[in-house]
Amino acid sequence: MKIGIVTGASSGLGRESVIQLWEHFGGMDAIWVVARRRERLLELSQQVGVPLCIFSLDLTKGRDLAVLAAALAKEKPQVKFLVNAAGFGKTGPLAEMSMEDSVGMVQLNCTALTAVTRMVLPYMAENSRIIQYASGAAFLPQPGFAVYAATKAYVFSFSRALNRELKDRRICVTAVCPGPVRTEFFDRAGGTLPLYKRLVMANPRRVAAKAIRDSIACRELSIYSPAMELFFLLTKLVPHRLLLGALLAAQTRMRQKLPAARTVTKED
Length: 268
Ligand SMILES: NC(=O)c1ccc[n+]([C@@H]2O[C@H](COP(=O)([O-])OP(=O)(O)OC[C@H]3O[C@@H](n4cnc5c(N)ncnc54)[C@H](OP(=O)(O)O)[C@@H]3O)[C@@H](O)[C@H]2O)c1
Known about the structure:
By secondary structure, the chain is an alpha/beta fold. It contains ten helices and seven strands. The chain has helices at about 10-25, 40-45, 60-75, 100-120, 145-165, 185-190, 195-200, 205-215, 225-235, 240-265; strands at about 1-5, 30-35, 50-55, 80-85, 130-135, 170-175, 220. The protein has a seven-stranded parallel sheet, with helices on both faces. The termini are far apart. It binds NADP nicotinamide-adenine-dinucleotide phosphate (NAP).
């Protein structure tokens, strides 16, 4: 049985990945979709012409990860695509963030992604593909988004190294590093979205399509949009202390404007 596995399939980039794998790769017998919201996954199964095997799991829980591992051991599928898109980010200084959110980001974005990749690897044959959703946040530490950016730096580094490790098995790993994408991500992230992020907000369908194209071409990185390519280049050429200084100055300017906006929100 040839399958794809997509985590984070209930919304945004994971959901788009399922649709596009179905549209472009007819050879799969099923796609295993993973997320907590079962109803969303059921809804998606009505929209695609390939059978979806629904795993309503919380990937931060060891017993839920074990359910996926047990299904793999039982079915012994041939996994052609693994897309790790489950992830979340919370904005705000660490000192003001709940323990649940701070540690939860590491559990989902790093631990679960690593666990899923590790458990699926034995079921991947030559010419299979792994797509790991990192982020442009991986390129530079981000005060105010510190844990999230650090988790994405982990995904970025892990994926590039794994790509080299799996060369002999002809399995390609692509780290996807978009800037802001219009998904539910920002509902959970909280905070005020800066204007520059709103201006470069990308369409999830296009980001997922480019990620799949880059993965098929065995590219190690998938960076959507010239703006993000430029940002990547800047983080390679300019010392990070200078870029961080500019970032902090921009954040201070934003904070100075915030009290008025907050008052309006509370009165509403
Ligand atoms: N949107 C952006 O601007 C952006 C930019 C760069 C990178 N990314 C990365 O791209 C990936 C996809 O993000 P998105 O924009 O598509 O966000 P999204 O629309 O919020 O989707 C996140 C997905 O993760 C799943 N998820 C969250 N917590 C989970 C848990 N504990 N267990 C299992 N699944 C869980 C959600 O499903 P349930 O809630 O149903 O569990 C949902 O399907 C993430 O890794 C994100 O960091 C996003």
